[in-house]
């Protein structure tokens, strides 16, 4: 697919038309306060993996509603003093998978915490282990329209809250330096990273790659690929609800979280990305509040973005922030 979105010079100036709800901060303040009313109850159980250079823990912590959320914590073998931490969120449809598939960040000397995404893990990878016990009004298959009737009910209210609690769980481990914590992720994981970056004020770094869940008003009208297309397909059936749906989604739009992001940030975008169009990524990047920010652009890539090349960029970038 050739370039289909705005040219790069216009992307660098693009601003989203997404309207921020007046009670955005109050909504998220109440949501996190309610979540913290449940004990974090973070548990770290050693796992036998037959890997010689890392130690893995099976993690369980209390997320939204006190619901148990799974994860992996991987540490370099022989760690005795607290390490800077990288908390990672997973792409759409995937789960935490198997422990031995997450070795990059621990190999680089970091404590690495991977959060399982509630209700997901059935589409690719090694599976997930975290159910989502909350029901939904009628929705289009997928996760985008679950609870679309109101922001209080939407699926990503639970997921973003889980993400904040995952940072708190990682920081609770004695071998994690809580003052040096970064969040990373690709696609949905990038979108969760943007949200957590706006909700956790003292992160040391944020690195979202081709982030999903940004600039909903443009995304749902620009691309016909899933997962954004789930929203359009829902509205094909539920005619006349566009305004209500976009209002609900505005509480989960990465653009508004980005406006609260204070940590140094490294984004990436791909100019042929039809899943997360580059203008939606630049909408979040341009809104990111911190002055210390950069974006890597991959001219001829689709949603795979920079892949291992972007990993190399992050490996070079993170040490100066952690």
UniProtKB/TrEMBL annotation:
Pfam families: AXE1 (PF05448). The active site is at residues 187, 273, 303. It comes from the Bacteria. InterPro entries: AB_hydrolase_fold, AXE1_dom, CE7. Substrate binds at residue 92. GO terms for molecular function: carboxylic ester hydrolase activity. Residues 1-319 form the Acetyl xylan esterase domain. Gene3D superfamilies: alpha/beta hydrolase. GO terms for biological process: polysaccharide metabolic process. This is Acetylxylan esterase. It comes from Streptomyces apricus.
């Amino acid at each position: 697919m050739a370039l289909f979105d705005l040219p790069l010079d216009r992307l660098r100036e693009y601003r989203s038309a997404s309207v921020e709800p007046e009670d955005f901060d109050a909504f998220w303040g109440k949501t996190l306060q309610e979540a913290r009313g449940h004990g974090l109850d973070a548990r770290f159980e050693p796992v036998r993996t037959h890997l010689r250079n890392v130690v893995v823990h099976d993690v369980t912590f209390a997320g939204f509603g006190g619901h148990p959320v799974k994860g992996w914590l991987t540490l370099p073998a022989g760690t005795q003093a607290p390490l800077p931490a990288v908390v990672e969120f997973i792409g759409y449809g995937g789960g935490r998978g198997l422990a031995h598939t997450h070795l990059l960040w621990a190999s680089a000397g970091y404590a690495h915490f991977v959060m399982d995404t509630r209700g997901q893990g059935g589409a690719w990878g090694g599976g997930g282990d975290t159910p989502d016990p909350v029901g939904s009004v009628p929705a289009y298959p997928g996760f985008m329209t679950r609870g679309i009737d109101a922001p209080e009910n939407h699926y990503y209210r639970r997921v973003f809250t889980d993400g904040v609690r995952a940072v708190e769980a990682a920081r609770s481990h004695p071998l994690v330096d809580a003052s040096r914590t970064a969040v990373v992720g690709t696609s949905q994981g990038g979108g969760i990273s943007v949200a957590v970056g706006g909700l956790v004020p003292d992160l040391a770094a944020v690195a979202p790659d081709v982030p999903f869940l940004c600039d909903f008003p443009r995304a749902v009208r620009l691309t016909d690929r899933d997962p954004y297309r789930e929203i359009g397909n829902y509205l094909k059936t539920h005619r006349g609800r566009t305004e209500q749906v976009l209002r609900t989604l505005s509480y989960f739009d990465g653009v508004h979280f980005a406006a609260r992001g204070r940590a140094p940030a490294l984004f990436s975008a791909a100019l042929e990305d039809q899943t997360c169009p580059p203008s939606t990524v630049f909408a979040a990047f341009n809104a990111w509040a911190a002055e210390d920010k950069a974006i890597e652009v991959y001219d001829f890539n689709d949603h795979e973005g920079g892949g291992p090349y972007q990993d190399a960029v992050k490996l070079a970038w993170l040490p100066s922030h952690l």
